């Protein structure tokens, strides 16, 4: 069973070690030759959730190397790189390959259908932080769900990798789960990025409750347009719970802003705005978040 992890960032490095431990045959893909060579020379180093440090080595390539065929390709790049990777996948996918998409947010062309391969979407509540080219820290133990956006009964055969079912669960309603996470992210991510605060600090900001509830109301309405039924009250509870549980974390959007990278805002708040636009509705608060995050993107050095 060969699983190719396309994208050697936080999630990719975390899962490479986990798959290695499960006895799978993981292969990592890095964007740059520099990261590939570093992982080849030094291995990858994972600090687990208890603070113990583990080292392991796995085969690693760049997309331009000659790639082995993979049974499953786990695409673990940000949404901002997904279109580029999509065009490169035939370098590793055969007719029977299955592609798992691990991104937060909603891509405007989902569900993907190109190629002969199956496309699966996942949602994960794991937390991982990349500390260097070959080092990652497991910051939060969570679970992962996988399913098909096209058919509730579709999904990968998880038994192909014994032990995987400890972390990954089939979900016939993966669209609902994606939109639930997107709704939570549409509040926490832009506000932490724009105000420059950690997740827990949001709860102490005076403007937070009104703004968060306004963003959530729009998210619930957008989800309805995507045929997903979300409960506003449940989401508001979940947002506050995530802020408390991850109080000391810098959201992924804040981290991207701080390191001068493009954020995933177009696929989170932007997905809500686009869904509204198609129905002739202006989701003004989410639109404002897209604009405000774009304003701070690129203002900090790399
Ligand atoms: N980290 C987490 O805890 C969680 C992340 N997610 C989601 O998972 C996705 C991945 O997140 P995360 O791992 O944190 O992101 P990272 O930015 O840490 O990693 C993404 C990796 O993709 C690489 N990459 C970009 N373009 C290519 C390419 N063309 N070919 C190969 N590799 C490429 C980047 O390389 P380079 O650095 O060289 O640009 C980087 O190493 C995101 O959508 C995120 O929202 C979801 C839940 C939790
Ligand atoms: C849940 C949250 C907000 C945790 O930081 C997250 O998913 C992110 O940072 O992208």
TrEMBL record:
<dbReference type="InterPro" id="IPR013752">
    <property type="entry name" value="KPA_reductase"/>
</dbReference>
<dbReference type="InterPro" id="IPR013328">
    <property type="entry name" value="6PGD_dom2"/>
</dbReference>
<keyword id="KW-0566">Pantothenate biosynthesis</keyword>
<dbReference type="InterPro" id="IPR050838">
    <property type="entry name" value="Ketopantoate_reductase"/>
</dbReference>
<dbReference type="InterPro" id="IPR036291">
    <property type="entry name" value="NAD(P)-bd_dom_sf"/>
</dbReference>
<comment type="similarity">
    <text>Belongs to the ketopantoate reductase family.</text>
</comment>
<dbReference type="Pfam" id="PF02558">
    <property type="entry name" value="ApbA"/>
</dbReference>
<dbReference type="InterPro" id="IPR008927">
    <property type="entry name" value="6-PGluconate_DH-like_C_sf"/>
</dbReference>
<dbReference type="Pfam" id="PF08546">
    <property type="entry name" value="ApbA_C"/>
</dbReference>
<feature type="domain" description="Ketopantoate reductase N-terminal">
    <location>
        <begin position="3"/>
        <end position="149"/>
    </location>
</feature>
<keyword id="KW-0521">NADP</keyword>
<dbReference type="GO" id="GO:0008677">
    <property type="term" value="F:2-dehydropantoate 2-reductase activity"/>
</dbReference>
<keyword id="KW-0560">Oxidoreductase</keyword>
<comment type="pathway">
    <text>Cofactor biosynthesis; (R)-pantothenate biosynthesis; (R)-pantoate from 3-methyl-2-oxobutanoate: step 2/2.</text>
</comment>
<dbReference type="InterPro" id="IPR003710">
    <property type="entry name" value="ApbA"/>
</dbReference>
<comment type="function">
    <text>Catalyzes the NADPH-dependent reduction of ketopantoate into pantoic acid.</text>
</comment>
<dbReference type="InterPro" id="IPR013332">
    <property type="entry name" value="KPR_N"/>
</dbReference>
<protein>
    <recommendedName>
        <fullName>2-dehydropantoate 2-reductase</fullName>
        <ecNumber>1.1.1.169</ecNumber>
    </recommendedName>
</protein>
<feature type="domain" description="Ketopantoate reductase C-terminal">
    <location>
        <begin position="174"/>
        <end position="296"/>
    </location>
</feature>
């Amino acid at each position: 069973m060969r699983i190719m992890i396309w994208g050697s960032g936080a999630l990719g490095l975390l899962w490479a070690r986990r798959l290695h431990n499960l006895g799978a045959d993981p292969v990592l893909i890095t964007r740059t030759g520099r990261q590939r060579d570093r992982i080849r020379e030094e291995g990858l180093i994972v600090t687990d959730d208890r603070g113990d440090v583990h080292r392991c080595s796995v085969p690693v390539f760049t997309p331009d190397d000659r790639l082995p065929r993979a049974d499953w390709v786990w695409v673990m790049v940000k949404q901002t790189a997904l279109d580029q990777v999509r065009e490169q996948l035939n370098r590793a996918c055969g007719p029977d390959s299955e592609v798992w998409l691990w991104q937060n947010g909603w891509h405007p062309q989902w569900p993907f259908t190109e190629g002969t391969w199956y496309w699966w979407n996942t949602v994960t509540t794991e937390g991982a932080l990349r500390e260097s080219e070959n080092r990652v820290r497991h910051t939060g133990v969570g679970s992962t769900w996988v399913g098909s956006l096209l058919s509730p009964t579709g999904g990968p055969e998880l038994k192909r990798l014994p032990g995987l079912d400890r972390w990954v669960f089939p979900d016939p309603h993966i669209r609902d789960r994606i939109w639930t996470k997107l709704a939570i992210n549409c509040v926490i991510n832009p506000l932490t990025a724009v105000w420059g605060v950690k997740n827990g600090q949001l709860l102490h900001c005076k403007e937070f409750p009104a703004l968060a509830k306004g963003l959530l109301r729009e998210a619930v309405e957008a989800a309805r347009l995507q045929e997903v039924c979300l409960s506003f009250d449940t989401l508001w509870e979940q947002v506050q719970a995530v802020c408390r549980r991850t109080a000391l974390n810098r959201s992924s959007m804040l981290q991207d802003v701080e390191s001068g990278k493009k954020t995933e805002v177009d696929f989170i708040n932007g997905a809500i705005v686009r869904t509204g636009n198609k129905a002739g509705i202006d989701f003004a608060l989410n639109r404002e978040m897209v604009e405000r995050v774009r304003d701070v993107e690129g203002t900090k050095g790399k």
